[in-house]
Amino acid sequence: VVDGYLKLIHRRTGIFCFDSFFFTKMSSIGFDGVEGWIKKKSKHTSLLSKKLILIPIFSANHWSLVVSIV
Question: For residue 17, what is the DSSP state?
């Protein structure tokens, strides 16, 4: 449900949204482990060209959303 809504936000606004697995994976293996995934996900778009970047976080049965203003 969360990933579907983030995809909808991205399609309608162009805001870059990571999926719900990104933060968990980065927390367990570090930035070097997700760097290639970030490049693949952002394709031809620079993350710095976006106004907002959304990162959903699920921890201890609670959802949070990090909103990064670039």
Answer: E
